[in-house]
Automatic annotation (TrEMBL):
Protein name: Coagulation factor XIII A chain
Organism expressing this protein natively: Zosterops hypoxanthus
Family membership: Belongs to the transglutaminase superfamily. Transglutaminase family.
Active-site residues annotated for this sequence: 321, 380, 403
Organism phylogeny: Eukaryota, Metazoa, Chordata, Craniata, Vertebrata
Region Disordered, annotated ranges: 1-30
Length: 735
């Protein structure tokens, strides 16, 4: 059916009572442009050859030529001209004879999509004038020689971004003569963070180099006490990635006329990067079985994911939050919107958005896993994109949160943002889009609530400092971590923090105050819980310390509950239960060690080697309950990468990846991946098994494409062990 429909549509536009023309959201489709557009009846003796005719057009589109150099687009692995809006570029036109300004008249036409219209910005006629105005379309002749002229062309700083078709039109008395359709002179126009008139203008050159031009990054995982880092290849300049990113906007059905607006682009991108409700790029899976797909931990970068989606048009399996954020970062940087990858540690996934995460305890003080619905993610990743917000009051431009991980729907679709970081900090959550949701992710309180036999809820403890404890991104110009917590919130306990909270509550964020509940904090005994750092596959010990500050003797019944959890804080299996009675002497502290054996956890260990411990202690004499919880992440072994000899652009060299299996078991179904933007496309290799204590060596021949500092990134994936990474910075020399 679809075929006959489309052929019918070609011949005759369908009647539609609502629109004169169908919606225009494909950058790929084209209309036919007549080479001769006659004004009326053409006289018999008319010969187009008598008039000025275009013989050739030079775009100066090679990476070393003026346009790509001045527009910072020389890294794109793409043969066509790529420029940034609001900045002049040059082309040369060769005519069949010298150009005579007095009598000859020609102009340029830039077209996009199938129904180009001038008022929609998809048909842009550019006349040749005497001077260029900043930020407005125009062209002027800067050089004339023999039959050639050189033009400087200025694009509008608000024009839509994407791929335009270029025609040169010459006026004759009887009609307009146009150049023939030539895809080699198509021109991509992108956002311009270097242009003061562009909505994405960023005034710091080092930040532009990081947030627009850097094609590798560092992601932060693990948990707040034990931050783990790994590299990610964004690869926004790799072959076909720019076209894949433009295809995403077509897939999201964003009208071509809206593509000059970074707010709209971010909003649709946050929806189309995940596959929920629109067959977008990546399928999320938090199940730890990844049938018929790639485990989220195995990806080393965005390029494979985007290219697979671009060619198959089917959602790619599988991703988790850092993958969604990594791909969205590539998309934004590729189009020229400054972007960075953010990690929020102890991120609240609050099911009823009341800024309160309830952990329920039963009558004896043990955690009730059946009633506890809210989860605290060890970390959650999202993106920030830099832009002005003319749709909001002054002061809310700058970094905006955009989150492509499908958590909750927003206006009926799984998407989130753009939401102003400044508005979140000050509690102005009334401003679009999705600010209350992001506010709750970084600002909840944890309530330890005991449910008595008759159903009464008694709050035994409140932790106000844990949610959104640390918010980080990669530092500019280096691989270290930059703490940006203060961009999102005022210091815990400060007057400004309280004011921001009151503002958020005034704008509708639900907040139950502690006063509404019966809560008497326990003051004369406190409890601390520490875990020893350990590598995956080893035994380790945890220590519970009870400190009695009173003059009374107490006895405490203490429960330790250990869960193997996903990084989202959702438990998979309870693997450790331990209870003991402790005697607490007056004014003294007592410590108790508990050993966690590898045999207790290895069979069910999840890929991020993550545990969650709850400790509750009931003071028998007073009936008071103390509660603490802690996430513990074990050390996962790493891959070693080395190179043999010097790496020279265009010459073959060897890269060696090594891994030693430290576990007390054989690894089955091992897959290795290696990639490095500008050095090699991703290579995968399957290995059957690696016995315990044995070392695997994989040699790969590579031919680096361009000189400069580059990064190789590798990952190992197997049934029992995931999240194994290695990386190496390599200097590639000029040949």
């Amino acid at each position: 059916i679809s075929e006959t429909m489309s052929t019918r549509e070609e011949n005759k536009l369908p009647l539609n009572g609502r629109r004169a023309i169908p919606p225009n959201y494909s950058n790929d489709e084209e209309n036919e442009v007549p080479e001769m557009e006659a004004f009326g009846v053409i006289p018999r003796g008319f010969n187009p050859r008598d008039y000025l005719r275009v013989v050739d057009i030079y775009m100066f589109k090679d990476p070393h030529e003026i346009n790509k150099q001045e527009h910072h687009t020389d890294k794109y692995y793409n043969p066509r001209l790529i420029v940034r809006r609001g900045q002049a570029f040059q082309i040369q036109i060769d005519f069949n004879r010298p150009y005579k300004p007095q009598s000859d008249q020609f102009w340029l036409e830039f077209l996009m999509g199938r129904f180009p219209e001038q008022n929609k910005g998809t048909y842009i006629p550019v006349q040749v004038g005497n001077a260029l105005k900043p930020g407005q379309w125009g062209a002027k002749i800067i050089h004339r020689e023999n039959n050639s002229i050189r033009l400087s062309i200025m694009s509008s700083s608000t024009c839509i971004i994407g791929k335009f078709r270029l025609y040169v039109a010459v006026l004759t008395p009887f009609g307009i003569l146009r150049t023939r359709r030539n895809s080699a002179i198509d021109i991509y126009i992108l956002f311009n963070p270097w242009c003061q008139l562009d909505a994405v203008y960023l005034d710091d050159e080092k930040e532009r180099e990081e947030y627009v031009l850097n094609d590798v990054g560092v992601l932060f995982q693990g948990n707040v006490e034990d931050v783990k880092t790994r590299s990610w290849s964004y690869g926004q300049f790799e072959e076909n990635i720019l076209d894949a990113c433009l295809f995403l906007m077509d897939k999201a059905e964003l009208e071509l006329s809206g593509r000059g607006n970074p707010i709209k682009i971010c909003r649709v991108a946050s929806a189309v990067i995940n596959s929920r409700d629109d067959d977008g790029v990546i399928v999320g899976s938090w199940k730890s079985t990844y049938d018929y797909g790639v485990a989220p931990s195995a990806w080393t970068g965005s390029v494979d994911i985007l290219l697979e989606y671009y060619s198959s048009k089917q959602p790619v399996r599988y991703g988790q939050c850092w993958v969604f954020a990594g791909v969205l970062n590539t998309f934004l940087r590729c189009l020229g919107i400054p972007a960075r990858h953010i990690t929020n540690y102890s991120s609240a996934h609050d099911n009823n958005a009341n800024l309160r995460l309830d952990l329920f305890l039963d009558d004896e003080g043990k955690v009730d896993t059946r009633l506890t619905k809210d989860s605290i993610w060890n970390y959650h990743c999202w993106n920030e994109a830099w832009m002005t917000r003319p749709d909001l009051p002054v002061g809310f431009g700058g970094w905006q949160v955009v989150d492509a991980t499908p958590q909750e729907t927003s206006d009926g679709m799984y998407r989130c943002g753009p939401s102003s970081v400044q508005a979140i900090k000050h509690g102005h959550v009334c401003f679009q889009f999705d600010a209350p949701f992001v506010y709750a992710e970084v600002n909840g309180d944890i309530f330890y609530t005991r449910i008595e036999k008759n159903g009464t809820q008694v709050v035994e403890g409140v932790d106000t400092a844990r949610i959104g404890k640390l918010i980080v991104t990669k530092e500019v110009g280096g691989d270290g971590m930059m703490d940006i917590t203060e961009e999102y919130k005022f210091r815990e306990g400060s007057d400004e923090e309280r004011l921001a909270l009151e503002t958020a509550v005034m704008y509708g964020v639900k907040k139950q105050s502690v006063q509404d509940t019966t809560y008497q904090p326990q003051t004369d005994v406190d409890m601390d819980f520490q875990a020893q750092k350990a590598a995956l596959g080893n035994d380790f010990k945890v220590t519970i310390t009870l400190r009695n500050k009173s003059r009374n003797s107490y006895t405490a019944t203490t429960y330790l509950l250990g869960n193997i959890v996903f990084y989202t804080g959702v438990p998979k299996r309870e693997f450790k239960k331990h209870s003991f009675s402790a005697k607490l002497e007056p004014s003294s502290s007592s410590s108790f060690d508990i050993v966690i054996k590898s045999s207790e956890y290895m069979s069910d260990m999840l890929e991020q080697a993550s545990f969650h411990f709850f400790v509750t202690a009931r003071i028998n004499e007073t009936g008071k309950i103390l509660a603490v919880q802690k996430a513990v992440v074990l050390e996962i072994p790493t891959l070693r990468i080395k190179t043999e000899g010097a790496l020279v652009a265009g010459k073959e060299a060897s890269v060696i990846v090594e891994f030693t299996n430290p576990l007390k078991q054989t690894l089955e179904n091992v897959t290795l991946r290696l990639e490095g933007p500008g050095v090699l496309r991703t290579i995968k290799k399957q290995f059957g098994r690696i016995p315990m204590n044995s070392t695997l060596t994989w040699e790969v021949k590579v031919t680096p494409m361009r000189p400069g500092l580059r990064r190789l990134i590798a990952s190992l994936n197997s049934d029992a062990l995931r999240h194994v990474y290695g990386e190496l910075n390599v200097q590639i020399q000029k040949p």
